[in-house]
Hints:
globular
Amino acid sequence: xxxxxxxxxxxxxxxxxxxxxxxxxxxxxxxxxxxxxxxxxxxxxxxxxxxxxxxxxxxxxxxxxxxxxxxxxxxxxxxxxxxxxxxxxxxxxxxxxxxxxxxxxxxxxxxxxxxxxxxxxxxxxxxxxxxxxxxxxx
Length: 138
């Protein structure tokens, strides 16, 4: 459960970046679109996985994307520090925000499915890789 909690907090942090975006520059939209799409694919993969091998593949696909996206997300957060105010969601990001909020509901089912396979060494290794990639956002 500690693994699930850690990931949820990281996801919430990214949602705050999404919800706090202020000026709506193209780089914000592009990076946040990539992030939401990656997360959507990850959640779908977690939900559909019917074996530890499938779960590890879903986690590793997301880790692949986060290894690239995490530094971009960090850069955006550092580039626009004023975006921490959730009152400033630009129109360009409102549809992404709604998509991400809807995905949060599905995420619980995906995590419950993941828990069935967490004792598998491949799933554990994939999850550790994902955690390492997510640390790149901090």
